[in-house]
Structures are given as structure tokens and as C-alpha cells.
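Notebook, bench 3.
Goal today: get a predicted structure for superoxide dismutase from bioreactor metagenome so we can plan the truncation constructs. The sequence was checked against the plasmid map this morning, with no discrepancies at the termini. Length recorded as 185 residues. Pasting the sequence as submitted so the record is complete.
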Amino acid sequence: MQLSEHYNLYTRYIDCLNKVNLEMSYSDTNECNQNYSSTRSAQKSKTFCFDAIKLHELYFENLTGNNTTIYGSISEVIDDVFGSYSNFLEKFKCIALSMRGWVMLCFDKYNGEYYIYGQDSHDDGVMLYAEPLIVLDVYEHSYMIDYGTNRSLYVDVFFENLDFKVVNSRINYLLNLEPKEPPHI
């Protein structure tokens, strides 16, 4: 039930982006003002909707319920950077409980580092050169139907359904590594 409502919201972001793009194609270039203008409003809406679409796509893609045992490149990275998977989960969950929008494990292509960061909004706090590896939606719409106000349980269930094959494909693509198969359990 929760995911179907979530998907409906995602499709509304697509509709929003299409509408904004259409409006921008007819916008008056004489109306350009940083305080208020239709151009400014359209640009703000465009980045909000575009980022919402991309973040939701990454979120849905890594939330399959398949390949839920950590393995491969992501396991090695987490052990190297955070010391252990349990340390990583503790830090990730703390940030997830502290933010209003998104929490991600990212690879920074600029400096070659991995870090967890959060965003309060789709387009607020976006870090340049940050490639998302694990993406979790922590907006209330993502958990309220199934979990009420228990965001902590939602985060736990997210990790029980995180597809590490997807996460490894993201990291291997960035590092140009050959993919490893998930363990057969």
C-alpha cells in the first residue's frame, strides 16, 4: 500500500516537470527578476521536480527485497570507511532520523571519498559530484501509511529490503570494476 501511494506521488512530480518545461518554453524573457518572476518560479519548480524524480527512481531501484545480504564492493567500502556494517547502519540511521527528506551514502567523484549525508528537500543540500549509492526517502509520505510515526522501524525495514546487487552495480560502475554475484544463501 505504501509504495503504491509513493509511486502516485512520483508520477505527480513527472507531471509537474513536464508542465514546468512547457511553461518555460513560452516564458517571457523580459520578465526576469530575482525577487519574483514567472521565470524564477519555474526554475525553482524545475529543480525541485527534477531532483524529486531522480531521487525517487534511485530509491525505488535500490528497494527490491532481493539480494538483501551485503557483499562485494559495497561491503569492502563500508568496512574500510565505517569500520563495520553495524557502525555504518548506526550512523546512516542517525542521519535518517535527523533529516526531513533524504539520506544517502555517496561517493564523491571530486575527492574520492565516501560519506553519508542528508537533505531536507529534494533540491536543498544537493552536493556536487556526489554519486548516490544507497538512497533512502525519509519524507513522511514514505512511511506514515505503514509505520505511522515510527521512522526508526521504517529505516530498519528499508535495510532488510535493500538490494545490494543494485548498490554494487552503482559502485562498480563508478569504479569500473567487474560485477560480483551475490552470495547464494
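Residues 7 and 37 are 31 Å apart (CA to CA). Helices lie at 2-25, 38-61, 72-82, 85-98, 144-147, 151-160, 164-175.
Flagging this for group meeting.
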